[in-house]
Amino acid sequence: MHLAFNIPFARFDMAVAWLEGRTLLQKEPGGEACFALEGDWQSRSIYFDGPDNAVLELIGRRRLIHPADKRPFSGADLSCLSEVGVPSDDVEGMVAEAAWTFGVGTVGPASSSFAAIGNDEGMLIAVDPNRPWFPQKRQRPGANGLEIWVTDVKSPGTVSDAQHGWSVRAR
To answer: Is 51 exposed, middle or buried (0-12, 13-18, 19+ CB in 10 A)?
Structure first.
């Protein structure tokens, strides 16, 4: 499982210090724990272990505007659940199905093994089931039994994957 939570971009360094005081950060083999992505993402991320071997992430997205704040970082700074990772044997087909069903596109180009479907405030991260999660690449995607309800999409419907046991629904 992969879940990411939005935090204010300008408070990213405070979030790192806050999280380091609570848990170990996941690092890539070179030792890096903080990751900046430009281009389509415009973000900074840190990853850590969650329950049941989940890969959790705090992500600051530059495009999301948050008021300036000098107070210490806290859990109150997590603005929303912004990413849910789901495995799919047909990532490109899932992108097409989500576009057809919900009227949503991708953040950046999709590939046959990875797609970010939605926008900065909520996206499905569709990945090939054999593609391990970044940054340590030790956990594989899983979402058996997961049911996700979304709002603010253009049309209601359901996208699901019976083989991997998850579904996304919009009313």
So the answer is: exposed
